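ok, trying the design again with the full structure, not the truncated one.
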């Protein structure tokens, strides 16, 4: 029987005794928050819970990713494992018990954090299902449509916040009400909205959290990728944007009838993955530009890197051998241009990874480069 397990959680947090108590009935719990350790004991069983130091996590997660690929799992899971911001080790003395008290702690933490669990060579989701035997699934076409419309509706809501305190505030508030009514009228969209998105939609103009507003508007870039995937419109260039209001209107947001996008079909998986790799390359290049702004890169040769070995990087505009952004080589861009390029690339890469099935919850998708 196993005597240890690991939980991979997408948040940086160490639980307190009150968080652990529901998973460990009748146990004595002692937490050392500073050391990020806890002991859970019964008369015949002792469990220890530790959080891996941040400086050790990158190498560990890369090793886990390699193991996932060796097991033949799909690329979605290989990306998903990198979402962990905490790695909890759980060990038992003398071993995991027949009463499953140790397993109860493992399952409880995995479910509470919506994480992944490594146990006896297998990687399990929060429901205890093996992700090697039951691979992560990509979203259906109808769900992609609902997610695209949800993102656009939330982006529209974010944009009207700029009218707060201005003569048009009452009109903006009425418009916000129309967005809410549209989402409520279409069950597919209402179900797709995450709690934070729904909260923003229902927050009166002038009362929204500023960062939530900024994030919501940027999400429209991800919606563009989903619309492309549904063959509804072409994806704008990597250095171009379209106004979310126009994209939303063209896609049927605020229309009284059911948007026709729900009848669309997805592009073949090969096309979706090819686009994901191109967006990954763009995201990587913009991050490199942020880290070392003056370093030129031979952009088309990036496909020689292992993680981009299948990427087709033809067709991108170049200045010399580096990627062009708004007519300028990336290594000559200003900081504001680099920030713009990185934001566009990150949101589009995020949507592409969600299409792959990295995480069913859009906000929990990761975009490792």
């Amino acid at each position: 029987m196993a005597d240890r397990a690991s939980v991979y959680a997408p948040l940086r947090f160490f639980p307190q005794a009150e968080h652990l108590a529901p998973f460990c009935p009748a146990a004595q719990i002692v937490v050392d928050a500073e050391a990020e350790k806890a002991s859970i004991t019964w008369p015949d069983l002792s469990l220890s819970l530790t959080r891996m130091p941040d400086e050790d996590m990158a190498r560990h997660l890369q090793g886990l990713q390699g193991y996932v690929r060796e097991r033949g799992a799909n690329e979605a899971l290989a990306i998903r494992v990198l979402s962990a911001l905490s790695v909890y080790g759980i060990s038992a003395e003398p071993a995991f018990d027949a009463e499953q008290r140790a397993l109860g702690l493992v399952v409880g933490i995995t479910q509470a954090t919506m994480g992944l669990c490594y146990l006896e060579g297998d990687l399990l989701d929060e429901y205890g299902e093996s992700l090697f035997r039951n691979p992560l699934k990509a979203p259906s076409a109808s769900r992609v449509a609902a997610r695209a419309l949800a993102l656009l509706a939330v982006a529209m809501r974010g944009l009207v916040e700029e009218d707060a305190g201005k003569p048009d505030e009452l009109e903006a508030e009425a418009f916000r009400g129309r967005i809410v009514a549209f989402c409520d009228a279409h069950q597919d969209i209402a179900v797709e909205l995450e709690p934070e998105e729904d909260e923003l939609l229902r927050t009166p103009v002038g009362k929204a959290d500023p960062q939530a507003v900024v994030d919501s508007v940027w999400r429209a870039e991800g919606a563009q990728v989903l619309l492309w995937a549904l063959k509804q419109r072409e994806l704008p260039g990597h250095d171009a944007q379209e106004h979310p209001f126009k994209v939303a209107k063209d896609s049927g947001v605020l229309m009284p009838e059911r948007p026709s996008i729900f009848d669309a079909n997805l592009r073949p998986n090969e096309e979706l993955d090819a686009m994901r790799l191109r967006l990954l390359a763009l995201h990587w290049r913009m991050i490199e530009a942020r880290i070392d702004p003056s370093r030129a890169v031979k952009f088309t040769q990036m496909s020689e890197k292992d993680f981009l070995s299948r990427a087709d990087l033809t067709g991108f505009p170049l200045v010399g051998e580096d990627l062009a952004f708004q007519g300028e080589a990336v290594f000559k861009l200003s900081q504001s241009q680099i920030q713009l390029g990185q934001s566009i690339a990150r949101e589009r890469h995020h949507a592409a990874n969600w299409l792959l099935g990295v995480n069913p919850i859009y906000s929990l998708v990761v975009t490792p480069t």
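Keeping the full-length input from now on. Strands lie at 4-9, 28-32, 37-42, 45-51, 86-93, 116-119, 122-124, 318-319, 322-325, 328-329.
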